[in-house]
Amino acid sequence: MKKIIFTDKAPAPIGPYNQAVLTGNTLYTSGQIALHPETGELITSDIETETKQVMKNMKAVLEAAGMNFENVIKATIFISNMGDFAKINSVYGTYFNEKTAPARETVQVACLPKNVNIEISMIAVL
């Protein structure tokens, strides 16, 4: 059985998908980009600010499912420029305890939705 997770504290889906789906004790999130949930404005002034907005959106989705970043077991980061890796990693790292951080991959891609520079999805468990 699956439960759809939705919060107005993260951007609403813009297609035939949901912010997250909980099945059993496992949460699968859709990718989050740096859309401000209230204004719909893209926050892309610099990669650090963009990454922070993505993580704020992800935090809201996790909280809507009764979880937090400690519940995350896997993260996938899509970036448009591998040259931004160190800056992204620096921001991303502030959300996790290094000793219990999730598994992760970071992949450079040709293009992301709305031409953003970063998108992150996660899998979490209760």
Automatic annotation (TrEMBL):
Its Gene Ontology cellular component terms are: cytosol
Q: Which Pfam families match?
A: Ribonuc_L-PSP
**Coiled coil ranges:** none
The record, for InterPro entries, names: RidA (IPR006056), RutC-like_sf (IPR035959), YjgF/YER057c/UK114 (IPR006175)
| GO molecular function list | deaminase activity
Q: Which Gene3D superfamilies match?
A: RutC-like
To which protein family does this belong? Answer: Belongs to the RutC family.
What's the protein called, per UniProt? RidA family protein
